[in-house]
Amino acid sequence: MTDKPKTIPDDALAYHALGWCVIPIRAGKKLPAIRSWKQYQKVRPDENQLRKWFAANNRNIAVVLGPVSADLACRDFDTMAEYEKWSKAYTDLAKKLPTVRTAKGMHVYFEADIEGIKHIANGELRGKGGYCLLPPSVHPEGPVYQWVNPLSNGNLIKLDIEQAGFLGEQADVTEQTEQPEQSEAIEVKGVIEKAIEETLPQEFGMRNRRIFEFARAVKSLPQFSDADPGQFREVVRAWHVRALPKIRTKEFEETWIDFLKAWPRIRYAKGEEPMTQIFERAVQVEPPSIAVQRYPENTRLRILVSLCRELQREAGQNPFFLSVRTAGKLFNVAPMTASRWLFLLEADGILKVVAKGGTAETVRQATRFRYIAN
Question: How high is the pLDDT of residue 171?
Answer without folding.
Answer: 39
